Amino acid sequence: MCRKTMRRTGIAGICLFLLAGFSLEALFAPKPDLWADWQAHDAASTQKVDHSAWDRLLARYRSVGEDGIALVDYGKFSDADRKALDSYVAGLANTRVSLLNRAEQFAYWVNLYNSLTVKVVLDAGIPKSILDIDISPGLFADGPWGKKLLTIEGREVSLNDIEHRILRPIWKDPRIHYAVNCASLGCPDLPEKAFTPSNTEEKLEAAARAYVNHPRGARLVDGVLHVSSIYVWFAEDFGGEAGVLKHLVRYARADLANRIRQLTATAGHSYNWDLNKVN
Question: Cα separations (Å) of 65 from 26, 70, 156?
Answer without folding.
Answer: 30, 6, 36
